[in-house]
Amino acid sequence: MPAESDVGDLAVIFGLLSDPGRVRILIALLDGEMCVCDLAATTGLSESAVSHALRLLRGPRVVQVRRAGRMAYYSLADSHVRMLLDLGLTHVGHAGQGRLQAVSNS
Prior knowledge:
This protein is mainly alpha-helical. It has one domain: Orthogonal Bundle (Arc Repressor Mutant, subunit A). The protein has helices at residues 4-16, 20-29, 36-43, 47-58, 79-95, 97-104, and strands spanning 63-68, 71-76. A two-stranded antiparallel sheet has the order 1-2. A hairpin with a 2-residue loop joins strand 1 (63-68) and strand 2. Helix 2 packs across helix 3. The radius of gyration is 15 Å and the shape is globular. The model has no long low-confidence stretch (mean pLDDT 92).
């Protein structure tokens, strides 16, 4: 069994993935680094909502930021985040959305 702190940290990450807007941001970042304005345009979220989500995702090192002058560019923190997203998307593809909706509505 993993250490209690590791279990808690994992629960925090899964909690962050429970918001569809944050998941859309992470999926957009699978293509590479982006600024807030590009993430907002890609995801359909407001720049304010994207900024807030990125602030939450930076804490547990799900995303990282690179500053270039006044611009900030965000990317996935590492290959583990990419693998987690890829596996999750693959799982959803295999499970079928109808079954997931039925479970979440119970």
